[in-house]
TrEMBL record:
Function per UniProt: Chaperonin implicated in mitochondrial protein import and macromolecular assembly. Together with Hsp10, facilitates the correct folding of imported proteins. May also prevent misfolding and promote the refolding and proper assembly of unfolded polypeptides generated under stress conditions in the mitochondrial matrix. The functional units of these chaperonins consist of heptameric rings of the large subunit Hsp60, which function as a back-to-back double ring.
EC number: 5.6.1.7
Record protein name field: 60 kDa heat shock protein, mitochondrial
Residue ranges, compositional bias (Gly residues): 496-509
Family: Belongs to the chaperonin (HSP60) family.
One GO CC term on file: mitochondrial matrix
InterPro entries, alphabetized: Chaperonin_Cpn60_CS, Cpn60/GroEL, Cpn60/GroEL/TCP-1, GroEL-like_apical_dom_sf, GROEL-like_equatorial_sf, TCP-1-like_intermed_sf
Subunit organization: Homoheptamer arranged in a ring structure. The functional units of these chaperonins consist of heptameric rings of the large subunit Hsp60, which function as a back-to-back double ring. Interacts with 2 heptameric Hsp10 rings to form the symmetrical football complex. Interacts with HRAS. Interacts with ATAD3A. Interacts with ETFBKMT and EEF1AKMT3. Interacts with MFHAS1.
Cellular location(s): Mitochondrion matrix
Amino acid sequence: MFRLPAVLCQIRPASRALDVKFGANARALMLQGGRTVIIEQSWGSPKGTKDGVTISKSIDLKDKYKNIDVANNTNEEAGDGTITATVLEHSIAKEGFEKISKGANTVEIWRGVMLAVDAVITELKKQSKPMTTPEEIAQVATISANGDKEIDIISDAMKKVGRKGVITVKDGKTLNYELEIIEGMNQKCEFQDAYVLLSEKKISSIQSIVPALEIANAHRKSLVIIAEDVDGEALSTLFFFFYDRSPTLVLNRLNVSLQVVAVKAPGFGDNRKNQLKDMAIATGGAPHDLGKVGEVIVTKDDAMLLKGKGDKAQIEKRFQEIIEQLDITTSEYEKEKLNEHLAKLSVGVAVLKVERVTDALNATRAAVEEGIVLGGGCALLRFIPALDSITPANEDQRIGIEIIKRTLKIPAMTIAKKAGVEGSLIVEKIMRSSSEVGYDAMLGDFVNMVEKGIIDPTKVGRTALLDAAGVASLLTTAEVVVTEIPKEEKDPEMGGTDGMGGGMGGGMF
């Protein structure tokens, strides 16, 4: 008989109180919402924001039915567009509720909705144009950062490291935005013009690395050893001491004295082999030749090999190999690792030291990936006529298509209303104007959106519409919502009232 371990036998199932709402009541609760601008923080003063990502992640409602997440997926995929996704979803779901409550067929309505959504996305891709100038990159970043023109530092970063290069965001220690460019592979010692010895295996014998040590010593170069591990005789023969913060290696039995640092190879298995291969190509290392780097920086936590001396043609060849692998792989894990390899082989690494630019950076990446369309909700308005060519199979599908027609007007109307003008009139004027004309809410006037740089990433619009339709479909077809009832927290001061004294605060397990 199979017997559970004693420890598992002592585990008692945890019980959670659940609350259940049904039908229209559940759907109505999930649809409720409003404007949220001022956010109380657990520390410091409240902050005001127009950033949809920050707002959506800050809201944790006591009523769990209203707390069903609907906005974050768009940000995860496209980096921006949470407000667009939310207003679209609200419009689709609200109209869907009304039609379904009057007896319309739920399934057919959503077939009509998806017919319209697919048609809009097809038009969106047709109208999309690639970003070709640094100015366009800066415009996308500025719009995503709510008009902060200093955010065009992202454009500078992309210009310097390339569109495939790595751009990371860190908290800065100043009031200004800073850009730091690190040229090379992201693998951190303070050697200049060093040799690199790469090994897929563990180094245990000193004899196996003597040739490399002698070559480095003869050329008066520092040596970086990157291997699976260094142990045994090799480790015991080498004595490390620090002189002027540079690790120096002295060999007892050999007439060699030089600067050496040993680094454990990153990753494991095939991933480690691939990283070592990338390093070999970036530094020009070969089975019978040492690699070379312009600078090495090593700490106890990380390492960087900078300004590799590898052959540019070989680096480009490896770059293309990784891109081809990215195109055929379906594993998200493999894609993540391949993108890491790609980034390390790129021109360099850009580090943005700012308070909050992640949304702008993500939106810019989305624009680079799929191109740009008119901003301010104008692109969606231009796609409404394309829905007239769809032939619905029945009346309920026609209702679904009409829901999307009306919904496509909502983003532009919302922007106009926030600017204090009548949204429906603004939308009507935009639709009567030429294709690139839209409403600039900052100026309060109609302008050429392209010339003014009011543009949006195609991926943001596409993802927002798809997510809005998907979530609205879920909300309107849901008959039951199950949420966990939060436990009532006892007053900490009551912890010692049952004879335990005044310090346990909650009992023992």
